Amino acid sequence: MASRSGKRHNRRRVSGENKQGASAGRMHEVLGLVVMTLAFLIGLALVTYHTSDDVIVRGSTLSDAFVPGENQVSNALGLAGAWMAQLLVPRFLGYPVVLLSAFMCMVGYLLLRRRLTGKLVSTGILVLVVTFTVAGLLGWIALVFEVELALWSGSLGLGVAGWLQHVLGTIGSAVILAMSLAIAVLLLVGHDLQRIFDRFGSWTASVKAATGRRRAARKKRVEANRKAKQAKRKAGDSEDLPETRHEPSQTAARRSSGSTTAPAPSASSRTLNDTFQGMSPPARSTAHAPATEKDIEIHVQQRIEEEHADIVERQVDIPREKLAARYRFPTIDLLDAREADEVPIDYDELEENKRILLDKLDTYGIEIRDINAIVGPTVTLYELTPAPGVKINRITALENDLAMAMAAGGIRMIAPIPGKSAVGVEIPNRRRELVRIRDVIGTTRFRDSEMELPIAVGKSIEGEVFLTDLAKLPHLLIAGATGSGKSVGLNTLITGLMYACHPANLKFVMIDPKKIELQQYKYMVDHYVAMPENSEEPIITDVAQALGVLKSCEREMEIRYDLFSAAQVRSIKDYNKKVRSGKLDKEEAFIHLPYIIVIIDELADLMMLAGKDIEAPIARLAQMARAVGIHLVLATQRPSVDVITGLIKANFPARIAYQVASKVDSRTILDQNGAEGLVGNGDLLYMLGSRSARLQGPFVSSEEVDRVVDFVARQKGPGPYMLPPFGDESSAGNLSGIDDIDPFFDEAAHIIVRARQGSVSLLQRKLSVGYTRAARIVDQLETAGIVGRFVGSKAREVLVESEEELEELLAGIRNSGRV
User: Fold this and answer.
1) Burial class (CB in 10 A: 0-12, 13-18, 19+), 307
2) What digits encode the pLDDT tens for the residues 613-658?
3) What are the extents of the domains in the chain?
4) How far apart, in Å, do the first and last CA atoms of the chain sit?
5) Whether the predicted model's global pTM rises above the 0.70 cut
6) CB–CB of 506/499 below 8 Å?
7) What residue spans of 414-514 are helical by DSSP H?
8) Which of 439, 531, 549, 732 is placed for a possible disulfide with 785 were both Cys, Cβ 3.0 to 4.6 Å?
9) Best CATH choice for the domain 729-815 from the list 3.60.15.10, 3.40.50.720, 1.10.10.10, 3.40.50.12780
């Protein structure tokens, strides 16, 4: 009780500053509305400017705009608007000055959304340069071609153009103005010339290919119509013949006399004549014949272009006292950009794959009416529309035959595609496009998402950024063979959350039995790490300590449920909202609570050494911890049933499968086949409930992670978030907190005291027991006060000095009836 009171005392915060934070936010919103209103009024005055108002403006002063009079102007804002428009349009920069009004509107919007950044000054200068150069170009056109453009260039634009023409000549001035405009626009847009040229070349190639395909299709249609008309004409000629049947002798005589002068029939006509022996019904039009491989045109769906954002800082809701530290989010420049533009679509590869697919299906008598292709970064999805009457299972049964025909691994079938009357065949691309983490989290979709814990899973085949909210999943299970991209996926998950969440809103508990995968995150211990009060390592690497940390998370869950009960809320989101509003009793220990994500990098190691002891706290957290903001992310490279048990699996509806070794492993993690056919290097299947999607996971290098962690670590942090201590120190010297004392307890105590070494491996050797039992005996010895608590990788300290002292301690325990 005392420890809980102390914890509540440590969590006590003053909520009076919350209102100050809200007031500052409202000031930004009010200022943004004022700036947007001024921008709208200025723009309205410029748009409704008329030269007829100049005479009235010249005969009045600015003060006359505020005095009722008889002067009537055409401007929508009256005399004040006419005066302002006359100053800005003919006397300044002409109509291009509307760009400055638009820039003011953008500034007001950023103030309204509280996203005003330091790049605003440089952006404003670039907008001003663009406005000047546009006015100068219009002035140059007016001077060279002797046209009246005074309202478009303004006096300043004409002056700049005239001065440049005098100094550099007509051509030189035009080159300087055009180059200045191009440079300013490039800097303003943020794209380099190489990327623009590459995209233009790719667009030109795609247009050329599409034009060629349309011409070929038009030629085929014309040829088919010609043949259909020819067949119809021949059928009409045959209908004019007598319907009476000729005797064989008469037919032979007619053939011998040469009375039949018609040309040789086509293949379709021969088929009809041979079938009906001279009875000629209307011929079947070839336009309605089953489509062949040459007749089917493949339709390529264009990729989705995501809008990129230079600033990825998201709006966060935290108490005012948490903002006092002035934490700065990592910048997007810490992440590597793509070295080259996206891989262009290889239409020759698409046509070849189409031919192989149709030939193979035609071999088995399966008719396809239409094909659509969706080219992704890793695979291409071919949507096959079968003819009526074709059963889907006839197509799916040919999966291995198609894989052999394509001479490619990683082929996967989707039968049918959800929401479409088509069968999907996913075939790996010859040239794969590398999706970097910057391509995912550096988008407006990621920045503007309202998710509490956004996870950048990857890019879909259509090129769309795929995000999911861990707060709603609420837990995530990840599996994949060595080298499939599982560890990179974990780094992507952590890095993306660091870009999305303030340290006051998110803490990590990291368990890394392999001791190498998550060690680089220990340097952000003062910002994003949660650890028990009696733990010294921010990254947990020992199995026994991992069990203690999970139990500590259980106690944290129970404490939070007590707080929620007192606050009369049902979720961490509602609780933090009440804390920020100041509606809770200030005498109680109600403080802002962060989300806690428990990450276990290799679950198989823990399950192999601790088994049921690890499974129990994981299952309990998975069942109950969602409402209090504690979420689990479990990763393993061995998705067997003894690692991903039924109890764990039932509470993890969201799963990510990278490439695995067999169909059995795929069914273990996904309850379906498919993961065994992935191609590795981040190629994954994401499953939520019964729905699955194939995605390309983004790549983040160790150097990028180091840069982001170093950026965070160099800032002053509040220190780690302290979880309740694991183990019960108040019960030292007795076993009242243990229900089942091991029969080897006394013998183990003597072994430990004689060896002066509190080691689990020592008990394993001396008692010939497994790790789990030996670790449980050591925990009982700690509870009895015989050995000290766990400290890193060192052996536990032996607290009993001699065997005589040990006998006295054991005698007291026996008298209590515990042994």
Assistant:
1) exposed
2) 888 899 999 999 999 999 999 999 988 888 888 888 888 999 999 9
3) 23-116, 117-190, 200-239, 302-428, 452-723, 729-815
4) 28
5) no
6) no
7) 437-441, 444-447, 486-500
8) 732
9) 1.10.10.10
